[in-house]
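Researcher: I'd like a structural prediction for the single chain below. Treat it as a standalone chain; there are no partners to consider.
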Amino acid sequence: MKANKVLFVYNAHAGQGRIRFALTDVLDIFQKAGYEVTVHPTQARGDATVCVKENDGKYDMVVCSGGDGTLDEVIKGMGECEHIVPIGYLPAGSTNDFGKTLGIPAEFSKAAKVIVDGKPFACDVGKFNGSPFIYIVAFGALTEVSYETNQRIKNVFGHLAYVIEGIKSVGMGNLKPFSMSIVANDQLIKDTFIYGMVSNTISIGGMRLQDKGVKLDDGEFEALFIKYPNDPVELNSLLSSLLAQEFDPEHIYYFRASEIHIKADQEIPWTVDGENGGSHKEVDIENLQKHVQIIAPENLPVLDSET
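Model: Treating it as a single chain, here is the predicted structure.
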């Protein structure tokens, strides 16, 4: 990817400040590629959004370094710009789900070379009640535990650890049921759930999932809603289904959709890209197909919706 002027926005505190120790090497790679780089360390939450908007039309590319939240802010700012330019991403957070899905290396120098040698990819972005998100919105018993799960357990068991730790953290008797109606693909689902997610990723909370044909540019989300188990027998059956990732329809709704409307009997707390998304009784989720251009490695399967 060739560019002349580059705006480099980074969160110096993400991932225990790792980018500060690699900044010289990263800037050297960009300079040798012929980039004229302006560096902007973020000052507060939301600053990346403001910075991108204020520099609309001044740069050929925006590079951001931080966690998925920093990338969220940059994409939000880009969405409000008149001149849309490609975005390069140097993942620096603790989980970096979106970076893993894109195949961007965790090592900064290698990620910088992806930006220099890669190509712009038109990627889907979501809207959650009008606010942009990159890869996942979720509610329920499992939304907070992935970041608390021991990394060694994550590496061995992957998504199984995510589910088991979530249910263990609250216990069968304390699983909270959420009654709601879901409208997607002209179908109505009415049921009671313990967890739900709408995503465009193959990594959640730092753990890789089976991708099940996930594409980042197909205009559709993957939606998974886990039914409330009425007794330990149903719970065991549910866990077996999740372990096999077969998504038994007796216990799990799994489908793809570009728009999803959810109405609950009560206000439900949501997470948006791993951050607090507020509590809502009604939620509208919309896929904006190929809304932004992210610099990505060539020949990455999840980037090719034609395969």
